């Protein structure tokens, strides 16, 4: 079996945005503290060994790192029809088959297939307790047991482009599944997947077979089309696969494709829609040989210009005929319920302002659900959020928004088109303007035979909402978090009292008295806050511990003492932004950017942190559309998610790259430079102050741009008038190799030690070039004998190639970490057939060329490059290095393995100075003797059993404690934890005996006082004698 | 001395017991009683030997630090260069003692005042202590306790200031 088992037994982080996560309690005991309190104590991870004291374990479990699991955007979903059922079966665009608990939205089970198109799920059908999926472009047929998520069977099918699959019933029993491919149709048993028969389709070169239909009569109809010419209708016998009837050349010169335009209704009647003649074509598959034209005007219907009409029919059960009623979509918001019965087409009901329609069946009753906007649908509202003017215009055509974002769902009886009473669900989406995209209805009969239902709505921003009558949101899931593309961590703001104090110093002085009064007032506020805090403590102490909830919401957000909780700002591929509190995983805000098209590239930058109090923190997101190349800036407050008042510059040209400078304007916002495709630079913010500063330091600002398509690296120097001139260019010929990654250093990185102490106590100085780029190339020739990877270390200012090496017989994908004075990369060795690590370290030697300033323009001596390679027993899916505030703590590499584990590997193991033969000096230096293999020890997994599916990246951020580094791993799941690479050297141990130490201390103080007194008495007595 | 005093105090004396030889013991010669020594213990003689003794003592004091050195050397050799509690304590003592001696140099010099060659002795004392201190320092150095190498000051080296700013990357 190729699928990785990813059961969801682990605790889930809770539903996004609905409730705070449950605090896990491993047992009774006094260890249950509110998270904030524990964060202050900075509890360590549970030690991997067994037999740790209970209190420690409980504490650790409580604040154990959190994981949230996702499934991705839905492709297929099935809401089971019986009332008591508790699960939804979904198949998603992330190649996941999963069952969701319909009461809570939690994942009951989940199977994650390959992330490549090989794992793509093409079809899903539900039959009883089994879910049948077709994946890998029709190559694999699987059957799942939906209760526990087990695999019933798996069959691999013949090649051929997959068209459609359908369940086939024979005499009231559904026994088979039919799979239609481009050139063949095959029938499989549902019980074991074995193939019953396979038949080739005639004229498969010219004919596109696209539709499959059966209704329990022992035959399967297969419809093929020769575009703009005719239709072929084949009828196969279910028993032996013989073609019992072949109707070819049903003239349909107007028809280009069957998908969406045609549907089968009633007892095998094909209904097609023609846009050109504004009419419906009807043809019975079993009896007729020609298509009958019915003009729409006869029904008083018209459809919008330029809109491709769609027909939506339903077949509740494959052993009985389809319903004779069907929906005809005439415009994006106009649907009609039609009926074709006994050769007559009748119009049942019109739905204006409908956003989505769906059919649902329970027992004998089939209903149509229609989702409408409560107010009028308007074309793209003008009070739109974003500045990207041109983007907006292009999308105006298709975007119809509901002005107040309130929607109704109503049920209609299909036979008559009558509205069912008391079946309205009203719900309101967020104001950010995401439209509903999919509607799934679960209908059930209540005891009094009336119809009840629940609805699953998926919106444009990949949010799933499960609704209950009369509009209660049972749960919601933010599935866009399954594809995080960019992530930053921002410090939480200070508490009100702290902020008040800060503000006092921030304000301008206005006289002695004024200052004094201000001081008094702020002290008063502090006192107030303190008493409130005491009162709360007192109040909480009286309540049983289990009831104390430390609910985190946007109002009580405050930084903890050690800055361990932060705000994670996540940008997802769907264009939705999230603000997530890192310690609990609560989504505090979300914002959907409607203009973002799928496949856009994002760059998120923190322009102002929370450190400059009266000024709100500020993040800037650069979004660049892949097709139009146009970009826009979205500026927002990362703590509250609100759009900033600051107007970003309108970008007229496509932006190639950005540079965040350390210089600030008078409002403490860092200056962002954007370089466009004419190599002109736009500054944001562009105040006079900034421009003046820029003019001063323009000569020291450089850009580098890497064009992977042309294999060109080029450097630009900023001029005073904010234009640039090219200063260097490096061409890497694309015929031989292509650039795959370019990594600079993190600008926030702080290196504490400028060198390394040798065994003889001399210093080997590190070459810490902040402008250094590591460029990795892969050969275009992928033959295993000739393939190679190249690594270039290039100075970003001068373009000087500081080091280059070619690794023969090596292949990507290359994962690389570039930090301090080292580069670690990992690749596949095709000769030895294994994964290898190579580490490069750069040293200046025992003398520093210039200890006070680093200028790339003045570096006469090339650094010494040391290099060593190691064997790694696994492939890698992501890699990152830990980072701490001052850079004193030793570094670890965090390596995401395809198994979902994160390995924390000490950098000391990847050290090119590891000696092959240990000497006195190397021992003095604590160098580990070289051994080629780096082992994976399970105790180095920082996420224990909380595996992260399809990990794509790891983000690290420093905390206020030097020993502690915050880690977020993202992929299909999101996982947050803390790591302590050098143990917690700056935190008191968890089992630190406060009582003993303080009692000894007090005892000693008392003893001193008493003895002092005694000594005095004795002296006095002696004096009297 | 008692006899001498007596001899001086009494002007005359009566010999009651006749000598066995019947001859009196010759008062004229003024023979003293038993144990009486004619010769006076010369004041000058006592002074002479005191001086020598003093000198010797002073030399002892002055040479004491120098005499310690071979012993210290031996201890140093035995202690080795590893840093652990006992060698560290020894080195501390070795360093502390000469330091203490040097601090109480004036007292020592006062003690040497009586000596005629006190300048030389003082110098020797100083040199001896200096050597002891040097030895302790050498030991410290050998044990790596002295911050004499650049590596010892590495933690205080400030990162060089960045002169240029670069930014960019793969074209978005």
TrEMBL record, chain A:
Gene Ontology cellular component list: EMC complex
Subunit structure: Component of the ER membrane protein complex (EMC).
Record-linked Gene3D superfamilies: YVTN repeat-like/Quinoprotein amine dehydrogenase
Xref: SUPFAM superfamilies: Quinoprotein alcohol dehydrogenase-like
Keywords recorded for this protein, A-Z: Disulfide bond, Endoplasmic reticulum, Glycoprotein, Membrane, Signal, Transmembrane, Transmembrane helix
Domain (ER membrane protein complex subunit 1 C-terminal) ranges: 819-1024
UniProt key word Transmembrane helix: yes
UniProt cross-references to PANTHER family, sorted A to Z: ER MEMBRANE PROTEIN COMPLEX SUBUNIT 1
Source organism per UniProt: Otus sunia
Family under the similarity heading: Belongs to the EMC1 family.
Subcellular location: Endoplasmic reticulum membrane
Coiled-coil portions: none
An example Gene Ontology biological process: protein folding in endoplasmic reticulum
Superkingdom in the source lineage: Eukaryota
Protein name (Swiss-Prot/TrEMBL): ER membrane protein complex subunit 1
From TrEMBL, chain B:
Membrane topology of this protein: Multi-pass membrane protein
Transmembrane segments: 74-99, 119-138
Top-level taxon: Eukaryota
Keyword Nucleotide-binding: no
Any Pfam family: EMC4
Keyword Transferase: no
GO cellular component: endoplasmic reticulum membrane
InterPro entries for the chain: TMEM85/Emc4
Subcellular location: Endoplasmic reticulum membrane
Keywords: Endoplasmic reticulum, Membrane, Transmembrane, Transmembrane helix
PANTHER family xrefs: ER MEMBRANE PROTEIN COMPLEX SUBUNIT 4
Subunit structure: Component of the ER membrane protein complex (EMC).
Family, similarity comment: Belongs to the EMC4 family.
Protein name, as recorded: ER membrane protein complex subunit 4
Source species: Otus sunia (Oriental scops-owl)
């Amino acid at each position: 079996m190729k699928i990785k088992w990813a059961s969801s037994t682990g605790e889930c982080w809770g539903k996004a945005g609905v409730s705070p996560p449950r605090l896990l309690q491993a047992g009774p005991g006094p260890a249950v503290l509110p998270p904030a309190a524990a964060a202050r104590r900075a509890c360590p991870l549970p030690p991997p060994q067994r037999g740790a004291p209970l209190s420690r374990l409980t504490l650790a479990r409580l604040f154990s790192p959190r994981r949230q699991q996702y499934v991705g955007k839905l492709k297929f979903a099935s809401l089971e029809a019986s009332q008591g059922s508790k699960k939804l079966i979904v198949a998603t665009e992330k190649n996941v088959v999963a069952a969701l608990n319909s009461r809570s939205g939690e994942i009951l089970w989940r199977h994650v297939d390959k992330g490549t198109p090989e794992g793509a799920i093409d079809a899903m059908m539900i039959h009883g307790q089994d879910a049948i999926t077709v994946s890998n472009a029709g190559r694999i047929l699987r059957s799942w047991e939906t209760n526990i998520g087990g695999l019933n069977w798996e069959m691999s099918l013949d090649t051929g482009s997959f068209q459609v699959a359908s369940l086939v019933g024979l005499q009231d029993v559904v026994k088979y599944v039919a799979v239609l491919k481009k050139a063949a149709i095959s029938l499989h048993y549902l019980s074991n997947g074995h193939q019953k028969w396979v038949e080739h389709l005639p004229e498969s070169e010219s004919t596109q077979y696209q539709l499959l239909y059966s209704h329990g009569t022992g035959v399967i109809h297969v419809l093929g089309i020769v575009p703009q010419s005719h239709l072929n209708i084949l009828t196969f016998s279910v028993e032996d696969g013989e073609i019992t009837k072949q109707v070819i050349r049903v003239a349909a010169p107007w028809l280009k494709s069957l998908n969406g335009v045609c549907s089968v209704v009633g007892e095998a009647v094909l209904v097609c829609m023609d846009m050109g003649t504004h009419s419906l074509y009807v043809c019975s598959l079993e009896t007729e040989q020609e298509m009958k034209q019915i003009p729409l005007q006869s029904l008083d219907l018209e459809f919008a210009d330029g809109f491709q009409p769609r027909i939506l029919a339903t077949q509740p059960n494959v052993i009985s005929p389809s319903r004779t009623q069907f929906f005809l979509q005439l415009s994006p918001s106009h649907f009609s319920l039609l009926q074709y019965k006994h050769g007559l087409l009748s119009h049942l009901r019109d739905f204006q302002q409908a956003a989505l329609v769906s059919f649902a069946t329970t027992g004998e009753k089939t209903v149509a659900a229609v989702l409408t906007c409560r107010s009028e649908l308007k074309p793209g509202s003008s009070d739109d959020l974003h500045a990207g003017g041109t983007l907006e215009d292009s999308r105006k055509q298709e975007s119809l928004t509901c002005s107040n974002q309130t929607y109704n769902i109503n049920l209609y009886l299909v036979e008559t088109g009558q509205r069912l009473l008391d079946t309205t669900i009203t719900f309101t989406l967020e104001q950010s303007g995401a439209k509903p995209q999919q509607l799934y209805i679960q209908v059930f009969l209540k005891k009094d035979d009336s119809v009840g239902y629940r609805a699953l709505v998926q919106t444009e921003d990949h949010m799933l909402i499960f609704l209950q009558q009369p509009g209660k949101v049972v749960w919601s899931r933010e599935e866009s978090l399954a594809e995080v593309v960019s992530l930053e961590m921002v410090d939480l703001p200070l508490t009100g009292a702290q902020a008040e104090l800060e503000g006092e110093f921030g304000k301008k002085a206005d006289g002695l008295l004024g200052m004094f009064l201000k001081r008094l007032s702020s002290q008063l506020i502090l006192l107030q806050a303190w008493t409130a805090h005491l009162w709360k403590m007192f109040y909480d102490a009286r309540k049983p511990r289990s009831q104390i909830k430390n609910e985190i919401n946007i109002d009580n957000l405050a930084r903890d003492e050690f800055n361990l909780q932060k705000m994670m700002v996540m940008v997802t591929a769907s264009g939705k932004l999230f603000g997530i509190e890192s310690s609990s995983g609560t989504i505090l805000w979300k914002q959907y950017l409607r203009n973002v098209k799928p496949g856009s590239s994002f760059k998120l930058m923190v322009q102002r942190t929370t450190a400059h109090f009266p000024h709100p923190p500020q993040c800037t997101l650069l979004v660049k559309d892949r097709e139009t190349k146009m970009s826009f800036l979205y500026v927002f407050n990362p703590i509250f998610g609100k759009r900033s008042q600051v107007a970003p510059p309108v970008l007229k040209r496509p932006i190639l790259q950005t540079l965040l400078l350390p210089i600030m304007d008078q409002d403490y916002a860092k200056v962002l430079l954007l370089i466009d495709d004419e190599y002109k630079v736009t500054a944001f913010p562009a105040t006079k102050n900034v421009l003046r500063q820029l003019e001063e330091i323009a000569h020291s600002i450089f850009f580098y741009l890497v064009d992977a398509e042309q294999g060109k690296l080029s450097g630009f120097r900023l001029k005073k008038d904010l234009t640039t001139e090219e200063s260097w260019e490096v061409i890497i010929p694309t015929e031989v190799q292509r650039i795959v990654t370019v990594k600079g250093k993190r600008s926030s990185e702080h290196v504490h030690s400028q060198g390394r102490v040798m065994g003889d106590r001399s210093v080997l100085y590190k070459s810490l070039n902040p402008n250094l780029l590591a460029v990795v190339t892969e050969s275009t020739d992928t033959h295993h004998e000739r393939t190679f990877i190249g690594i270039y270390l290039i100075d970003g200012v001068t373009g000087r190639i500081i080091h280059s090496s070619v690794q023969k017989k090596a292949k990507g994908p290359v994962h690389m970490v570039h930090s301090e004075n080292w580069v670690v990369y990992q690749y596949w060795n095709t000769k030895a057939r294994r994964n290898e690590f190579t580490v490069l370290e750069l040293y200046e030697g025992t003398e520093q060329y210039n200890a006070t300033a680093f200028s790339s323009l003045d570096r006469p001596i090339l650094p010494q490059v040391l290099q060593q390679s190691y064997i790694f027993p696994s492939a890698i899916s992501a890699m990152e290095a830990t980072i701490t505030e001052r850079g004193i703590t030793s570094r670890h590499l965090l390596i995401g393995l395809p198994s979902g584990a994160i390995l924390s590997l000490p950098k000391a193991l990847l050290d090119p100075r590891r000696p092959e033969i240990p000497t006195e000096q190397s021992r003095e230096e604590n160098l580990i003797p070289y051994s080629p293999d780096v082992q994976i020890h399970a105790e180095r997994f920082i996420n224990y059993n909380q595996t992260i599916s399809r990990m794509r990246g790891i983000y690290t951020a420093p905390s206020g404690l030097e020993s502690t580094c915050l880690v977020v791993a993202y992929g299909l799941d999101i996982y947050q934890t803390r790591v302590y690479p050098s143990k917690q050297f700056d935190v008191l141990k968890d089992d630190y005996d406060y009582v003993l130490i303080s009692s000894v201390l007090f005892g000693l103080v008392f003893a001193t006082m008493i003895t002092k007194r005694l000594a005095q008495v004795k002296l006095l007595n002696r004096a009297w004698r | 001395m008692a006899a001498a005093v007596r001899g001086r105090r009494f002007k005359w004396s009566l010999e009651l017991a006749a000598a066995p030889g019947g001859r009196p013991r010759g008062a004229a010669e003024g023979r003293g009683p038993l144990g009486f020594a004619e010769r006076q213990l010369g004041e000058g003689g006592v002074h002479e030997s005191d001086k020598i003794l003093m000198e010797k003592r002073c030399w002892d004091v002055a040479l004491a630090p120098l005499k310690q050195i071979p012993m210290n050397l031996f201890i140093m050799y035995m202690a080795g260069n590893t840093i652990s509690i006992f060698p560290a304590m020894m080195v501390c003592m070795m360093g502390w003692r000469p330091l203490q001696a040097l601090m109480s140099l004036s007292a020592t010099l006062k003690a040497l005042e009586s000596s005629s060659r006190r300048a030389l002795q003082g110098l020797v004392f100083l040199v001896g202590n200096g050597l002891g201190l040097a030895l302790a320092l050498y030991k410290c150095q050998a044990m790596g306790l002295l911050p004499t190498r650049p590596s010892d000051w590495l933690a205080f080296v400030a990162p060089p200031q960045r002169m240029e700013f670069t930014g960019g990357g793969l074209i978005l």
